[in-house]
Amino acid sequence: MSGGQTSPAADEDSPLPVTASPITPATLAGLLAEHAYVYRVRSRRDGNGGTETFEEEITPPRDILASVLA
Q1: Domain residue spans in the chain?
Q2: Distance separating alpha carbons of residues 69 and 59, to the nearest angstrom
């Protein structure tokens, strides 16, 4: 932040200076793991021979994350 503040307490609620940084597939995977519930729907056989569906938490594959960022 350039310049000085005459009264720093007046801007207590102001956000800190933020800089942009490049996002890579690995960075996106980390952000998704920390901030989102990412899942796919899978199915399996139950005890009666039928099928049941369930959510399986996953990290998307690197090529899909790269496609999202392209």
Answers
A1: 24-69
A2: 15
Q: What is the pLDDT of residue 68?
A: 94
Joined tokens for residue 6: 């005459």
Q: Is residue 1's pLDDT more than 80?
A: no
Sign of the torsion angle spanned by Cα atoms 9, 11, 14, 17 = negative
DSSP the chain: --S--S-GGGGTTSPPP-------HHHHHHHHHHH---EEEEEEE-TTS-EEEEEEE----HHHHHHHH-
The label of the residue with tokens 């090529």 reads 63
Whole-model pTM?
A: 0.62
